[in-house]
Design brief:
2 copies of one chain form a homodimer.
Chain A: H1 4-11, H2 15-23, H3 30-43, H4 49-56, E1 61-67, H5 75-91, E2 95-101, H6 106-115, E3 121-124, H7 132-140, E4 144-147, E5 158-161, H8 163-176, E6 182-186, H9 192-206, E7 217-219, H10 224-235, E8 243-246, H11 249-261, E9 271-273, H12 279-283, E10 290-292, H13 295-311, E11 322-325, E12 328-330
The first copy, chain A, binds a DNA duplex through residues 1, 3-5, 13-17, 19-20, 23, 27-29, 32, 47-48, 50-57.
Chain lengths: 337, 337
DNA sequence: CTGAAAGCGCTAACAC
DNA sequence: GTGTTAGCGCTTTCAG
């Protein structure tokens, strides 16, 4: 491994000078600079990252901590999100450290990463209504940015969808098609986005004088399996819904499957909607009416917010950047086209 | 941030002694050890990772480098794979560094990570028949482990599916159901797994005296969209296939969609098979006949191989560990049940 | 314009 | 048992 010292020897200069030449300081003679630059290229010099990090006491690394299994964050959606984060990180020269945690105590992992100085900041996904991670990071002032809001103090950099607005679009869509008995399959309500969406749906329907029958609200699903089972319950009721709103596309697809098993024709005698617009939503049968969010870009946006936050970490009076995105309704056959 | 020095001052010992007490060296008096341990807990001492890494010149970090978009590696499949890697890494105390690369020159990223000493080893996914990454890493002797083999020298730690065997199962399955004209939709043949699978399918069918009509082999798809388009081509032929073999589940689902658009009843007058058994395969319509691989565990296995390789990096004569897994055929409705 | 010296926090020979 | 010293590779005062 070639070090600054090796380089210095080669060009007959001190380590200091070489370091400065490479760092682009102005107080280096053009001759020396060229000499050094050439030699560096020649010998294939690349700084030792760990040495730099130790000395700067910053890591140029962003952390994302994920639960062992991605409950509530559907896979295709997540993959794109992660890619968005990764792309933006590398654009700004940051490494991305991904940690999977299997224990209950997620917070311990955050603490460990902070105190062992492994990352400069965190990206938080799938915020909870009461989110210990957010609380902790806010208290300690450690940089982070989130995709999603929380119930308590939203005083941190974040990007979020306007879930209420999105569900308003769904409500309009279904109401226009004369649905009155509407079923819902959603993730646990301690997940912030799930709560917002349910509230939004209720509000949206109320505009049309429709209220949700509590029996038709199935809570606790986040994947196809859950969607399947909950849809079976709903459709087996004496007075079943004519439309089912799934809170993500996976759930909706599970519901489609259940409907089919029960001899229903989705899009004809039952409407089903999803959320996320994963690539498959267009290519499943029937194609899914859903809400589109530019998840890849969202990943990038959160990352940019975080990096900005890290760079202004010293500033006492930085502005908290927040972006709320208006999602878009994509109408396909599953809701009657 | 509390450092060894702080600790040393507190207990009136030298930094060295404190370090050794914490590292569990035997030449420390029990009294000192206890004193130190207690103080460390008290002050919340955690070693500075970067300092440790600089001094050990090892990073305790595994790297995985991904193309900007996961072509050829279906999303749900990939998520599980990554989770498997992440879980195992953290079990062994390794960090996982994920890098997304958008440029053509993937290899440059590998080189950079190595020479800037950012990771101790790499996990390679989606091996190519002629794989520059593998070649380079083999040449330089930098530790890595791969999911998949290559055409050239397979002299490295790897886990792979037995793709030939898997396709044999598909061939048996279709032949038993009297299919003779069989269509294929597969990724580009420079991807090793795609090539192996195609070879395997041909071999498997030959046992029944069936040969693949070249017109029925569509090459170049890896997602639903490609599957959809290629299936349309196949089914639009004057003498269309009675079965379509998709080389992954996404492609197969796209094909299902195309078949439906053309008025065919998948599982009845057209058989379609997939590969991977992503969670959705069970819950789409019709449920997909496919090949199951324990992808989460595979991720873990590759990771273990890599860690083992890293730990034996000095040894001149380490044994190259390789595991080839027998996949399993999952029969569902899409192929007639 | 350049170099000597200090230090980031830690570990490991090597004395005592 | 414990401390002194040196050094991982880099950046950054501070003199000259």
């Amino acid at each position: 491994m070639v070090t600054l010292k090796d380089l210095a020897q080669r060009v007959n200069r001190s380590v200091t000078t070489v370091s400065r030449a490479l760092a682009g300081y102005s107080d280096v003679s053009p001759k020396t600079r060229e000499l050094v630059t050439k030699a560096a290229a020649d010998m294939g010099y690349i700084p030792n990252t760990m040495a730099q990090r130790l000395q700067k006491s910053s890591t140029d690394t962003l952390g994302i901590i994920l639960p062992g299994y991605g409950e509530g964050f559907s896979e295709p959606f997540f993959t794109e999100f992660l890619a968005g984060i990764g792309k933006m990180s590398s654009k700004y020269g940051y490494d991305l450290l991904v940690t999977y945690v299997h224990t209950r105590d997620e917070l311990a992992t955050y603490k460990k990463m902070i105190v062992s100085r492994r990352v400069d900041g965190f990206i938080i996904v799938r915020t909870l209504c009461v989110d210990e991670r957010v609380k902790y990071l806010c208290e300690t002032g450690f940089p982070f940015a989130a995709f999603g809001r929380v119930d308590h103090d939203n005083c941190f950099p974040l990007v979020d969808e306007d879930g209420e607005y999105a569900m308003g679009l769904i409500a309009d869509h279904l109401a226009e098609r004369n649905h009155k008995r509407i079923g819902v399959i959603c993730p646990p309500q301690f997940i912030k986005s799930a709560k917002v969406r349910l509230t939004g749906l209720k509000k949206g329907l109320l505009k049309y004088g429709i209220t949700l029958d509590p029996d038709l609200v199935q809570i606790g699903s986040f994947d196809q399996k859950g969607g399947y089972e909950h849809a079976k319950l709903l459709l087996g009721l004496p007075d079943p819904p004519t439309a089912i709103v799934g809170f993500n596309d996976m759930v909706a697809m599970g519901a489609v499957h259940a409907a089919h098993d029960m001899g229903l024709n989705v899009g004809k005698n039952l409407a089903i909607t999803g959320f996320d617009d994963i690539p498959m939503a267009e290519f499943c049968r029937p194609p899914l009416t859903t809400i589109r969010q530019p998840i890849n870009q969202i990943g990038g946006m959160v990352t940019e917010l975080l990096i900005q936050r890290i760079k202004t970490a010293g500033d006492t009076d930085f502005e908290v950047q927040q972006t709320i995105l208006k999602p878009e309704l994509i109408v396909r056959e599953s809701s009657g086209g």
